[in-house]
Structures are given as structure tokens and as C-alpha cells.
Amino acid sequence: MKTIATVFVFLLVFTTCFSQSPQAFQYQAILRSDDGNPVINTAVSLKISILSNTIQNAIFYAESQNTVTDNFGRISLQVGKGTVLTGEFSEILWESGQTFIKIEFDPAGGSNYQVLGQTQLLSVPYALYANRSGNTYIAGPGISITGNTISNIGDLSASNELQVLSKIGNNISLNPGGGAVTDSDNQTLAATVNGTIRQVQISGGNSISLDVADNDNNPSNELQVISISHDTLFLSNGGFAKLPASTNAVVPAGGCIQSTNPTPPQGYVYSGTGFTAGDQWNTLAPMANSRFGAAVAAVGNQIFVMGGWDGVSAVSKVVEMYDVQTKVWTRKANLTTGTVYAASAVVGTLIHVMGGYNGSSALSLHLVYNTLTDSWSQSTALTSPRSGCSAAVVSQKIYLIGGYNNGNVLGTNEMFDPATNTWTTKTDMTTARTDFAIASLNDVIWAIGGWGNDALNTNEVYSPVTNTWTTYYPMNTYRSACSGVVAGNKIYVLGGGDSYRYTSTTEAYNPSTNEWISTSNIPIPRSYFGAVGIGTKIFVVGGNSGVSLNSLVEYDPTTVQYYIHCAE
Could you tell me if 125 and 94 are in contact, meaning their C-beta atoms sit under 8 angstroms apart? Predict the structure, then answer.
């Protein structure tokens, strides 16, 4: 049985300062068989080797470990804690250059290993090198350093540094043998009033006098009332000030103003500088259930989160709805079948949930949720099971694209017509992919990033009119398990990650200029989350960041240009 491993998390554990770094690091993976399904609840044996960066890949250290996969085929090891086969873990030369890890595997639990893969260890393992770094310490007076031992060779008396400071009356003493002093400072502070003179005095010392006289001897004539009429301010006892015309500006100190109007008002000139404000993330009320890989869709001002997995218990059937206007979460009717990594699409007031994974196999599931009646129904099943697929809607027709099934990453493209409840095969993607971002804009469909043989940054567009795919400029980053959302006239690709890390990166793509720009990052890095656009705002919910998340955050990508005008 050939088996493949997909790495989800790679983490080195270390401490700082003078503590000792643990001689191990954490390794997690998911084991899959040829048909793409995880090897679940199975006793397996592995051989882990740490290699040098030489052509021969000399082995620094090797060990074997036995473990059992969980319900999702996941294994979790502490490399350095197994049965040693070669070398010593504490003697690995992390400082020698690039270092690699090789994983070998026997599905029968013996020692007939087959190679699963080899990959470079990045910066994190070198926390272990801190224990080997050569700090040199120089002994001062009374100190001796021998090897790893620091000794006190000076005054070894344990009692002669212990003294007590005390005060009795005006006498301050230090015992033993410290002598005594007398505190003779017994001054007092007093205040006196003499007519309009207020005096502060220190006994036996200086004094300060303040004259608080009201020269016209009328305590009421300083009180006036300020009022406004149209564009003029008035004082009740005379005097007024005319306000300048409105400039949509805030007047700071220094005689300059900021305005959204590039033309300066009368009496001001443009200073040649300005700034852009906006592009903000805000945290909203969280879901009741933490989960990732859920199907997420928006209908009007309501966001629906359907199914998913919390990483611990069974695949979920739970459906929660968030109302953007009331800012309240509400439970809705459960899915009839639990699913994770499914695709969703909205046609009118109906949400289609398609495919996914039930914890043991990919699904050909096709459920329809009626948001008006809070009820689920079955629709025409997919032509073949798949998970990690994505869906988009053009002209009231659903296009289900890509995904993963039986060990294969898919490039398939099929159209579902809700009017006839039929599926039609369309032209495959140029690049097969799963767990990718999808977006529909200007009656075409964009497929971006995802996973093929590795994390992708490719960007291709499908035209339903011509039934063709065209490649456009790629993203700046490689990532899968990301989400795509349309806001304004741009496509935003958010979050995701590769085999080694989660990301919070957000990139905006302008199809009219075929250009990518970086924008504000998601507050918490995550993958396998949901994202929807409502109006000009983007909402990101749930996901995986090493633990499943229940957070909901709102992103407003709009910005405002301000201009600085200064007085002539």
C-alpha cells in the first residue's frame, strides 16, 4: 500500500534566557493511502533522520517511533524522543548550514521502511543551536569559572552582609557595627491669609506670597455667555467673531488644515503633502462553535456558516447565521449530513452546499438550504465525489471547479443549472488544484492559488461564454486553503498557508490593470476559513490557526485621501 503524507504543522519547542532548550521538536502529519483517504486508527512505525546539506546527505541523527493515527489519519511525534538508531540528538550540528528531515514509514508497524519525503528544516529548529553557541564568560574579583561551574572564592562569610536599618525617635541606626545618625529636620508647612495675600510658609525657612486681588473688586463682571447665530460667535457683554466657511477639514496646531478637497480654501495654499487613512480590520461577536473547513455564504445582510470540523470531535452538522445589521448570531436548521471542505454557492435566496468530506471519504453530496423557510432539501448529486472544491455563480448557473478525490488533485469544471437540475461538463482548468480561492467578477470566474503538487500562486480566469481558460499575472505569494472575495472592482485573496506555516497576508488584484498589491493583514493567521463580501466590506469567519477558531472579523478596504493646506 503506497501512502502519502501531508504536513499540517511543523513546530520547534524552545525556551530563552538561561533555561535549557528541550532536546526534541514537534512534528505532525496526515497519512493518506493511494485513494486519497486518510489512514485512520492504524498502528504505524516511522524512521526519522536529520541530514546535512551535503550532496551525500550525511546522517547526523536517526531514530524510530511507533504511533497510532487518529480518526483523521493524523500523527503527532516529538522528534528526539524516539528509539535512537544513529548519533545523538543533542550533538546535531545545527550550526553547520542547511539541515533536512527525512521521513520513512512502515504501514505494517515493522521496520520495512519506505521513504515518504525529505524537506529542509527552516529557521525554527535552530533554537536548539542556542544551547551550543559559544558565549565566553570572564571571571571578576572573587569569582572562579571552571568548565560549566561558577564558584565564589572571595569572602565566604554568610552573615557579615546582613544588617538592620531602624529609626527610634530622631535616631537612625545600622546594626551590627554601622553607627547612627540623628534626624533633626522637624519643620512644618503652613498657609496664612492676609487680605488678598495668600502665603505658604515653612517653619524656620522660606515663604511664598500670592496676590489674588480682584482689581475692580467686582467678582461678577467676569461672567459672560457665548452664543452662536449662523456663522458668528457672540459674547453677552460685547464682541463677536465670524467663523470661516466650511472646508470639510480639521484645523490642527501650526496654521495648517487637512481636507478631502485637493483645492485649498481661501487664505491657504496646498503644502504638497498628504496622507491616506482607512483600510481597517474590526473584531465582531464570535460564533458559538469553533471550526474550520466550514461552508460559508452570504444572502443579503446575513452570513451562514455550515458544517466544518473543530479538530477534535466528529464532522459538524451545525449551522449558524450572523446578521450584519443586528450583530447577533442565531442557530439555524442543521445540515442533514455533516461535511467539511465542501463548496457553497448562492442563487437567489437558496444556498447550495456541494461535496466535502465526512471524516472517512469524499462526498458527492448536494444539499440546498432555503433561507426563507430554514429548511434543507436534496438536489442532483455531483457526478463524482470530491472535497476541497470551489464554486462560483454566473448568470444564475453554478460552476463547481477543482478539488481532491482518490489521491488525485482535480482540474474538472462542471456547470449546474438549478432551472433543470442538471450537470454539464465544461473545459478543465489549465492547472489542477484544490483548496483554492475563487471569485466571480464581470461575468467571468477567477481561480487563484491552492494546492497542486505544492502551494500555488497561479491565477487563471474562465469565460462561460467562450468556455475557455486564460492565464493572468500570478499572486506575489504561494498559498492554499485561502479564500477569495470581491469588494468594489477588486478581488481580495486572504490568509491560507503552505506546508510549514499559516499566513495572515491579504493581496488585492485589479483585473483592469492585471496588478496585485498588498493590503492590511488578517488579525490572526489562519487557513480553511470562510470569507464573504457584503457591500464594500469583507467578513472573515472561523478557520484553523493551530487550533480551530470561532472569531468573526470585518475588513473595510476603502481608503480616504487627505490633503494638507497651510495658511499663506
Answer: yes
DSSP 8-state secondary structure symbol assigned to residue 106: E
CB distance 258 to 251 below 8 Å: no
Arithmetic mean of pLDDT over the chain: 83
Distance from C-alpha of 172 to C-alpha of 473, rounded to nearest angstrom: 81
**Is there a common fold for 3-131 and 280-565?**
no
- DSSP 8-class letter at 131: G
Count of residues for the chain? 568
Per-residue pLDDT for 450 more than 70? yes
Q: What is the secondary structure of 137-204 as a DSSP string?
A: ----TTEEEETTEEEE-S---SSTT--EEEEETTEEEEETT--EEE------EEEEEETTEEEEEETT
CA 327 to chain centroid, in Å, comes to 22
- Nearest Cα neighbor of 36 from 534, 403, 462, 560 is 403
Sign, CA torsion 113/119/125/129: positive
Residue with cell 470569507: 531
How far apart are alpha carbons 262 and 563 in whole angstroms? 6
pLDDT of the residue at 237? 63
Measured from the Cβ of residue 127, the count of other Cβ atoms closer than 10 Å reads 17
Nearest-angstrom CA–CA distance, 406 and 253: 68
Domain chopping of the chain, boundaries? 3-131, 280-565
pLDDT of amino acid 504? 94
Global pTM exceeds 0.90: no
Maximum Cα interatomic distance, the chain, rounded to a whole number of Å = 107
Per mean pLDDT, which range of 175-184, 318-327, 382-391 is the poorest?
A: 175-184
Residues 6+ apart with CB under 8 A from 36: 362, 404, 405, 406, 407, 408
β-bridge partners, 79: 25
pLDDT band at residue 4 under the 50/70/90 scheme: very low
The pLDDT of residue 154 is 67
Specify the 3-state DSSP secondary structure of 125. helix
Q: Per the structure block, which three cell numbers stand in for 252?
A: 490642527
* CATH number attached to the domain at 280-565: 2.120.10.80
| Integer Cα distance of 504 and 524 in angstroms | 6
Asked if CATH classification 2.40.30 holds for the domain at 3-131, the reply, yes or no, is no
| CB atoms near residue 219 (< 10 Å) | 8
114 to 2, 48, 136, 372, 522: CA distances (angstroms): 9, 11, 45, 54, 40
Q: Residue 226: what pLDDT?
A: 67
Query: What is the chain's Cα-based Rg?
Result: 35
The span from the CA of 340 to the CA of 357, in Å, is: 5
CA triple 317-320-324, angle to 5 deg? 160
Which DSSP category does 480 fall into? B
Whether the per-residue pLDDT at 57 is higher than 80: the answer is: no
